[in-house]
């Protein structure tokens, strides 16, 4: 279902990701603010559903909220979710509209394509044009591409940086749990201790994989564009800049691609 959104109407977008909730407040086509929160308990979501004004709602979900000048009624909530259990809970909120895959105008999509991948690709393509490859450096690292005719080419999914580190620590008897690196410099490639060996293995193979996918994409679509989003994007961009500056220079960086895709759906009428 698509709300009949006026060009100046306020609306709220919620992307329910694998790890966190991602929010955006729009005034018509304009993104007013975007922020992230942890998952909320069902009891808190029920309290949100009882809010009477937009001010009341934003005070509870927007950490840096400054009261709006006017007292405004609750606005439509547009949801894109990859976590079905969370989707069901959030539908208790009034005036909720869940964006499903059939609402995304991409051609040739398959039924199990993640709505997050489809929306990010659609948003990037509508901003910068097709052909387009979107790299999402989140909990999962995904590649999703469409050709000049806005038709899905395909893509790939692998565990992201944090998930790879966590898996080695949790699923092996001897290897330690290594925290996500938060420094811009690359680890030594040939390490002489276990922690740095894990960092080397994960980081360099992910970077090599990203480089390989980008090169394959540019062979397929020499004029194709490449956008990157996701929570690990800044770290990966630093690493890629150090190893492959000519590739990094081609990347369009935009954390809000899914929200741009949602905007295209909402404003499509």
Q: Give the strand content.
A: 15-25%
Radius of gyration: 20 Å
Helix content: 25-40%
Adjacency order of strands in the biggest sheet: 3-2-1-4-5
Distance separating the two termini: 12 Å
State the secondary-structure class.
Answer: alpha/beta
Could you report the average pLDDT, rounded to the nearest whole number? 88
What is the molecular shape? Answer: globular
| SSE ordering | EEEHHEHEHEEEHHEHHEH
- By DSSP, the count of extended strands is 10
Report the sheet with the most strands, covering strand number, pairing sense and barrel closure. 5 strands, mixed
Poorly predicted parts: 1-7
Q: Count of helices? A: 9
What does this structure look like?
The protein has helices spanning 42-49, 54-61, 84-90, 115-128, 161-171, 194-220, 233-243, 245-248, 257-266, and strands at 10-16, 21-27, 30-37, 77-81, 96-98, 132-137, 140-146, 152-159, 225-229, 251-253. It has nine helices and ten strands. The protein is 37% helix and 22% strand. Strand 7 (140-146) and strand 8 (152-159) form a beta hairpin. With 269 residues, it is α/β, with parallel strands linked by helices.
